[in-house]
Amino acid sequence: MPFSPAFRARGVQLLLGRMMSRVHKDLRFTDIPTRTEVLRVETGAGPVTCTVFHPPAQSGTAAPVYVNFHGGGFVVARPEQDDHICRYIAATAGCVVINVDYAVAPQRQFPVPVTQAYDVTAWAAANGPAGGWDGTRLAVGGHSAGANLTAAVCRLARDRGTFAPRLQIIDSAPLDQLADPATKQSLIAKPLLTPQLMRIFTAAYVPDPADRAHPLVSPALADDLAGLPPALVITAENDRLRDEGDAYAKALDAAGVPVTHRVFEGVDHYFTHTGPVAQAKEALQLMATTLRTALSP
After folding, report:
1. Measuring CA to CA, how many Å separate 245 from each of 90, 110, 138, 181, 289?
2. What is the extent of the structural domain holding 255?
3. What does pTM read for this prediction?
């Protein structure tokens, strides 16, 4: 008797959870002084814990805010895997960074993570004075599953007209969850993501196949991209997700959305966490520089 998708996803949580919280020692940026605090934000899908990273030094003007969503295939709940990114961006881009511990599958399935991601971002936009940041200067981004949630948040923000992110960072995102993962090719023999693992992620997060073409699940399948926020799209040359990321960048551009697209050569999925260090630092610098420009007064 085959194991259920939920059982397999829980196995992945146990096997990969600790591993995904490990970051290359030369990417931890522990030398950057950062003040953090933990907040609980009420959402339409339950309370969400967020870690807030404040920039080391602030002027008299409230800093802008960047909302970050971690990766993990919608299954692994390890927001601390992005601590190095949050710390670096807070210091280098001069903004407050909110790292969101959204709920994951199989315990909480689509659309719960989308609802939580959107509601936390809307809260950040509306509660700047109380939080100590400028909610009118807001950006959102993430890696892998977090980048998928970023695209969903930006779509909802556009459709509802509640807030207007100045930038979305889409880093190594799964953007087409309808396609069979076996059709997603890599330039190397053994890429990090396997079709089997990707199927586990998708089945746990979106158990009903009929939902997998939904634009909040598969943004690359949407044909109404006009009016979305400017985007920084990062893809990794050897990543199985590279083609859909490249295609999404082109589709955004064709829809009139300002896009900066960068393919990092010789690297695979998750390189911003595990290296190679030189390329990872270059990607983080690109994020921070693009954010600083987008969020300037």
Report:
1. 26, 21, 23, 14, 21
2. 5-294
3. 0.95
